[in-house]
């Protein structure tokens, strides 16, 4: 994301120097004439194109082979409805070119964002800089990951942007300035899922320090989910702690669960991996949109679990798992960080599981291999 913004003319730099974790973002007039490599990052390919429409000049977006399979028609069509010229040769995917003119008129548009909440967030984030603002209506089926949209709206309001929701599935962003503020960024709580799951497998406790007291992140639901699997969960001044008792390796059984994950699909791979080790059936629903993530996560999870002797079935909007005895073997990551960590969870309980390309976790947690090893040694 920093590279993408930098190519548009925005300065993003370490304000303290020496590799600190303090970032200073200085806005500037947006310029085109560049090609942005999105890699596999959905936020880049869906949040930056509306900004590129405000740039003076054309901006081309491309990405990895897997990214070229991810649905982008909603973003492309939305920009066209707003009067922005976009060339995609009719594919509805990467690569495509946004021909920015320095301004977007704005107005009232309707979209189907049932494949990803990112389509809504990307437009809302830029809407205040459109000449007449933006009224956005979702007209499709169930809108996934609503907490992410709520987070987007909260961020805009904190920066002085007027955002109203006149009815369910409709957002109005008034035109105006977006104030710069100093903020402390929360860590991505979903990255804690594999570490917390380890308590149920290896036994003992795992504590994630500095867990926020209040947050809009869906990762905050992890405590409740792990309780359903049978863990004891506590929140105190130390953080969030999951106690797995003796763990699977110590002879304990993991309960089966029935979970609707429509608000937090990014948690699904870790929870499904844990369910593959349970002694009772589990069903996960509300996650059809995961087919459009870094890979088709539903198909990938079912394929890899069954490759290890599991009994997983793909549902129209989720996955069902029956208890089975797993064995070692290769676990493909599909260049997907969530698939890699799901394989690590199963590999903790099943001897001989080899996760292909664990380095793909660098997308969201570059230190994952070292952190995982350190946790197990402790």
UniProtKB/TrEMBL annotation:
Pathway noted in the entry: Metabolic intermediate biosynthesis; chorismate biosynthesis; chorismate from D-erythrose 4-phosphate and phosphoenolpyruvate: step 6/7
Enzyme class, broadest EC rank: transferase
Gene3D superfamilies linked to this entry: Enolpyruvate transferase domain
One GO term of the biological process aspect: aromatic amino acid family biosynthetic process
Reaction(s) catalysed (UniProt annotation): 3-phosphoshikimate + phosphoenolpyruvate = 5-O-(1-carboxyvinyl)-3-phosphoshikimate + phosphate
GO molecular function: 3-phosphoshikimate 1-carboxyvinyltransferase activity
Keywords, sorted A to Z: Amino-acid biosynthesis, Aromatic amino acid biosynthesis, Cytoplasm, Transferase
InterPro entries cross-referenced by the UniProt entry: Enolpyruvate_Tfrase_dom, Enolpyruvate_Tfrase_sf, EPSP_synthase, EPSP_synthase_CS, RNA3'P_cycl/enolpyr_Trfase_a/b
EC id: 2.5.1.19
Ranges of residues in domain Enolpyruvate transferase: 1-370
SUPFAM superfamilies, sorted: EPT/RTPC-like (SSF55205)
Annotated family: Belongs to the EPSP synthase family.
Family annotation (NCBIfam families): aroA (TIGR01356)
Name recorded for this polypeptide: 3-phosphoshikimate 1-carboxyvinyltransferase
Protein's organism: freshwater metagenome
